[in-house]
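Bumping my old thread because nobody answered last time. Still need a sequence for this structure:
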């Protein structure tokens, strides 16, 4: 068993060492993707809310469809609340620890 662990360490150690230099670029890429995705997700939640609103208004005579529209509106508001709350929490934590969003990330490396 110990021989297998030693062989795995010897085989994968170079990959781990060389990957350490790429962690900074991976983190920057993930941050950029999150920055791009956030307004899209907010827009989708807002569209979901308006879809429920139109379903509620257009089906004023049918109680079952009104109930479906009301449920969609509630989930749209919940989604918007969660998105804005997480965004605000990240902003508060960043301001608390004086993290500049435009600052580069310095990841320690072994090279």
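Sorry it took so long. Here it is:
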């Amino acid at each position: 068993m110990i021989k297998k662990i030693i062989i795995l360490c010897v085989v994968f150690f170079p990959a781990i060492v060389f990957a350490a230099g790429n962690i900074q670029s991976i983190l920057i890429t993930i941050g950029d993707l999150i920055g791009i995705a956030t307004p899209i997700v907010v827009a989708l939640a807002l569209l979901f809310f308006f879809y429920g609103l139109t379903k509620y208004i257009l089906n004023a005579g049918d109680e079952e469809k009104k109930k479906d529209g009301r449920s969609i509106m509630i989930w749209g508001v919940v989604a918007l609340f969660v998105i804005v709350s997480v965004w605000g929490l990240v902003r508060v934590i960043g301001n608390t620890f004086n993290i500049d969003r435009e600052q580069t990330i310095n990841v320690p490396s072994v090279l």
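The mean pLDDT is 82. Let me know if any region looks off to you.
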